[in-house]
Amino acid sequence: MKRFIWRTMAVLVVVGGLALVVACQPSGGEGGGGEPQLASELHLYNWSEYIDPDVLTMFEDEFGVHVVEDTFASNEELLAKLQAGAAGYDVIVPSDYMVEIMIEEGLLAELDVDNLPNISNLDPLFANPPYDPGLVHCVPYLWGTTGIGYNTDVFDEPPDSWAYLFDPELASQYAGQMTMLNDERESIGAALKYLGYSLNSTNEEELMQARDLLIQQKQWVYAYDSEQYEDLLSADETVIAHGWSGDFFMAAEEDERIWYVIPREGGTVWADNLCIPTSAASKYTAEVFINFLLRPDISAMNSNFTWYASPNAAAAEFVDPEVLDEPAIYPPPEVMANLEWIEDVGDSTPLYSRIWTEVKAAGEQ
Length: 365
Ligand code: SPD
Known about the structure:
By secondary structure, the chain is α/β, with parallel strands linked by helices. The protein has helices at residues 2-6, 53-63, 75-83, 96-104, 163-166, 168-171, 184-194, 204-217, 229-234, 245-254, 283-293, 296-306, 321-324, 333-336, 349-361, and strands at 9-15, 18-24, 41-47, 66-72, 91-92, 138-151, 178-180, 221-224, 240-244, 258-261, 268-275, 340-341. It has 3 domains: 1-37, no CATH class; 39-142 and 271-324, Periplasmic binding protein-like II (D-Maltodextrin-Binding Protein, domain 2, 3-Layer(aba) Sandwich); 144-269 and 332-361, D-Maltodextrin-Binding Protein, domain 2 (3-Layer(aba) Sandwich). The protein is built from 15 helices and 12 strands. The termini are far apart. The structure holds spermidine (SPD). The site of spermidine (SPD) has 11 residues, from strand 11.
């Protein structure tokens, strides 16, 4: 009987012909009537090296909640995990276009703003994104750009064009010493940009050209990688890499030869977001965690650690000047105007996935 009480149970309450299901959990968990309680653990599913470990310790000390972090390498990997029914995550960090896809698929819970007073710290520019109008499901966490990282000892001038990765004359000079993101939207997007098209193209002819370009480029690619490409640069395995701004600046902290440039043809601008899956076990605890991450000092710690820009206006006074004043982290308006957001391409998504599969399989036995 005791075991029964401690186990989560559903109580059916019939009031005037209405059936209401109330979930009860052991104390220390969430749910039930009355004051919400914090769970003892929170499961965070995040990009790699994307939160200051001290922030996690501070949250654990302040709230007595142990944070278990697991990492993913692409939005598509995150989506596949949730679609497959993974129910173990309380907070996930999808990018803009993926938020839209996940909302459409019913994978994201609506946030209870009463638990998120620190949302008022956000810059109004980030308060109404087209992929989640009114921030109903997610709050923006960090934002950045996608471009080219390189070893400054090898390049006299910054490789400020996608041609360094795709033009046969230029790219062949770095054969076996370049990496591309293992990310279908980003890598196909880079090829589309080099060709002068939108990185959200749904034109089959343009997409086939991008596929052929990526297949041609494959002979010079050392690896498709989204988690260690900056370490490969530092280890002199590579000299040039397609990747995300902050990852290169983080590596540059340890190795001053590394730097980053946004290609003059334009690249991607993106925002990653804190969201709660509908399958989360501890929604209230997840909201308390997200609210903690929205605190100005905490938001700044994550920005300083990751070298990504913060959408939190109140955090600016705590962000290190090297981060805040770096034009490749906070690009000036004329550079921003040349960048594109990745959008949900709807019915063309399977075509992007097919192209990526073909690129990855090309030349393999
Ligand atoms: N190491 C953390 C990198 C986070 C990058 N997220 C960017 C996704 C853009 N499509």
